[in-house]
Amino acid sequence: MKVIEVKQLKKIYNTTEVKVNALNGVDLEFEQGEFAAIVGPSGSGKTTLLNMLGGLDQPSDGEIRIGGTNIQTLSSSQLIDFRLRNIGFVFQAYNLIPVLTALENVEFIMQLQQVPKKERQQRARELLDRVGLGERINSRPAKLSGGQQQRVAVARALASKPKFVLADEPTANLDSKSTENLLDMMEELNRQENITFIFSTHDQRVVNKARRVITLEDGQIISDVRKEQETRTN
Fold it and tell me: Can you give the pLDDT at residue 231?
């Protein structure tokens, strides 16, 4: 089942000095349950593409369909609600709310969804258990290591029961052991629950784990490799 369909996606940034084609006619599809990495040099369009897929930025041209919905046709309030119910985000900087505990950070998304308190607390506890932080539910971010904060961020991303999770350089601030643990955990969630993960990354460790690697250069896809089936498009 197709989770995402992208057709001729373009993003142009106009500055006083130059016009930048951040994305230049990208065609792409993601199936349910993929574990994919988007790679390429700095300025290739990786983060721009991820922001487009997540509805955080608007394309200059082209079409993005998520679960059959053309997200460009949604109003601002509809898009916010759509993101809330369909997309999980994991950011390089964690983006946890410092005054909230781990449990409250994971609950926060469900609170926005108006999930009843008892139900959201139970799911938040289950998710924190799942990511190995069951004993740290009352800890605030400042009392957690970088790896632990990123695990809370993954639990929060999954709290809304999204169609897919977008992870923008999620291992950039982590040491090798934390990176290995985080990737193992996300791969397990992907395989056991068929959750789609899409990474934007420079990290070779993420690339090694991914079962599909999409390479961008100058805003265009130059290769798309599925590791189980070495298929390449140029």
Answer: 44
Taken as a whole, the chain contains a residue count of 234
**Residues 30, 4: Cα–Cα separation, whole Å:** 5
By C-alpha distance, which of 49, 64, 31, 56 is closest to 199? 49
**What are the tens digits of pLDDT across the range 41-63?**
988 999 999 999 999 999 999 99
* Angle at 45 (CA atoms; ends 220, 3), nearest 5 degrees: 80
Class of domain 2-226: alpha beta
Q: Which helix (H) or strand (E) holds 105?
A: helix 102-112
Please give the full DSSP string across 138-207, using - where no structure is assigned: T--GGGS-HHHHHHHHHHHHHHT--SEEEEESTTTT--HHHHHHHHHHHHHHHHHH--EEEEE---HHHH
Question: If residue 121 lies in a helix (H) or strand (E), which one and from where to where?
Answer: helix 117-130
Host H or E run for residue 80: helix 76-86
Round to whole Å and give the CA distance between 179 and 146. 10
Instruction: Considering only the C-alpha atoms of the chain, give the largest distance between any 2 of them, rounded to a whole number of Å.
Output: 55
Strand partners of residue 61: 10
